[in-house]
């Protein structure tokens, strides 16, 4: 992992960084300045509607965004014996192609799992690409409900 890697929660002033990563995700080698007129504004509006239920992490090297991840919180309806139960959906995990296999993704994933533990989530769920399954398995994710064909993985959160 690069020694100058910073993983942090994105704030309101980070819309341009998040937008640049989302644009790079769809076109890794392209010039994104004119790729999607209004995209940054639309993304900012979308993030605002997500409220406190979505957390976005940025990975930065030398103050430049190189990766991101999001965690969306699902809140279950209370029931007797389980008045409060929440779990997280991990999505939008992305590391720029020129920064992959350097520990950036692992650092982002660790930040998400740490947050899930702090928030006392029951689990973290995701829908990985075929290529990313080994990465998530190394981090403790398993097939949800034993159905490998669904490509839905979950990681139970062990609370201390």
Strand proportion, as a percent range, falls in 25-35%
Low-confidence stretches: none
Cα shape: globular
Q: State the secondary-structure class.
A: alpha+beta
The end-to-end distance, rounded to whole angstroms, is 27 Å
Order of helices and strands: EHHEEEHEHEE
Cross-sheet strand order for the largest sheet: 1-2-3-4-5-7-6
CATH architecture: 3-Layer(aba) Sandwich
- CATH superfamily name? Gcn5-related N-acetyltransferase (GNAT)
Q: Tally the helices: what do you get?
A: 4
Whole-number tally of structural domains:
1
Q: What is the overall pLDDT average?
A: 87
**The biggest beta sheet, please?**
7 strands, mixed
What this model shows, in words?
- The chain has 160 residues and is α+β, with helices and mostly antiparallel strands.
- It has a single domain, classed as Aminopeptidase (3-Layer(aba) Sandwich), CATH 3.40.630.30.
- It contains four helices and seven strands.
- A seven-stranded mixed beta sheet has the order 1-2-3-4-5-7-6, sandwiched between helices.
- Strand 2 and strand 3 form a beta hairpin.
- The longest helix has 15 residues.
């Amino acid at each position: 992992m690069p020694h100058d890697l910073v993983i942090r929660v994105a704030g309101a002033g980070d819309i341009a960084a998040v937008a640049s990563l989302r644009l790079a995700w769809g076109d890794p080698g392209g010039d994104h300045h004119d790729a999607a007129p209004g995209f940054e504004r639309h993304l900012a509006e979308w993030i605002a509607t997500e409220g406190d239920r979505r957390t976005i992490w940025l990975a930065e090297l030398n103050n430049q965004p190189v990766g991101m991840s999001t965690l969306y919180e699902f809140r279950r309806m209370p029931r007797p014996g389980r008045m409060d139960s929440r779990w997280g959906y991990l999505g939008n995990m992305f590391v720029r192609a020129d920064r992959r296999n350097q520990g950036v993704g692992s650092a982002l994933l660790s930040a998400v799992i740490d947050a899930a533990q702090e928030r006392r989530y029951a689990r973290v769920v995701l829908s990985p690409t075929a290529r990313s399954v080994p990465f998530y398995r190394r981090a403790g994710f398993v097939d949800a409900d034993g159905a490998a064909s669904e490509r839905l993985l979950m990681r139970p959160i062990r609370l201390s």
